Amino acid sequence: MQKTMTRPVRSPRIAWAVLLAVWGLCRTQAATTNAFLPSADTFVRFGINQEVNYGALEFLDLYGNATARDYFAYVRFDLSSLPQEAQLLDATLRFTKVAGGTRNDTLTTGRFRVLGLNDVAGNTPQTWDELTLTFNTIGSEWVSANTYDTTRVTDLDGANEVADNTTGIASIGGPNLVSFLSSRLAAGGLVTFIVDFATTEGGRGFAFGSRENSNPDARPQLTVAWIPEPSMPALLTLGGLLLLAWHRRLR
Asked: Is the distance from CB of 231 to CB of 26 less than 8 angstroms?
């Protein structure tokens, strides 16, 4: 009686292991880091000189007062030079305290707040002009002194915020910032931050350097680390070839 020879069935684990290895390679490639300076920045005043523009000054004046005045800044970056499909891994937004503002009080974490301006109808548009924006021309994101509409801004505060009066540096990072930047990159790359003196202390404030500051180190800076998104078509093609080879092996 003639015996029928059969080949052992090979497990598809090898093919999948190769696929996962290639995917892991794509995900762990070295990150690229880019440092951006603002494409526009200015501050506005509520309660006094509401119609005045301050976009040409070397500083961003921040001032908090629950009953009378509120000075806060708008800072825009343009990330459109990054690939729109880039995967952002990390980000840090940094400001430097300078002289020139209405007040020069102590810089602390509690007095420093950064909000992301959402791209919704009624808000200040992402294309605002630093030489024309005033309190009277901003959108509906501001509600009252130190208060913003939570549906119109993204709160970026939290454990990843640092403000040190000794160095004069205030910065914010973390997953909330990365997520907000990713959404803005997908929408074209323009991203606006609102920076203000976060407390309701009467008559307290300080100033940060603007992009016009004569000291390059005092200008706002946004640092972004990213990698290209793995090419799904390429991975699918490779996966198809591997699975085809495995299928032929079985036959």
From this structure: yes
The encoded tokens of residue 117 equal: 């301006």
Closest of 37, 169, 43, 147 to residue 94, by C-alpha: 169
Contact 226, 86 (CB under 8 A): yes
Domain locations in the chain as residue ranges: 39-229
Q: Which residues of 134-159 are buried (b: 16+ CB within 10 A; e: fewer)?
A: bbeebeebbeebbebeeebbbebeee
Q: Measured on CA atoms in the order 175, 178, 181, 183, is the torsion positive or negative? A: negative
What are the residues facing 172 on neighbouring strands?
A: 93, 161
Geometric angle at alpha carbon 152, from 149 and 221, rounded to 5°: 110
Whole-number Å distance between alpha carbons of 144 and 66:
8
| 98-133 confidence digits (pLDDT tens) | 999 999 999 999 999 999 999 999 999 999 999 999
Residues with Cβ < 8 Å from 36, sequence gap 6 or more?
77, 78, 79, 221, 222, 223, 224
**Per-residue pLDDT reduced to its tens digit, 28-41:** 568 999 999 999 99
Residue 3 sits at φ, ψ, to 5 deg, of -85, 140
Report residue 182 as tokens: 């990713």
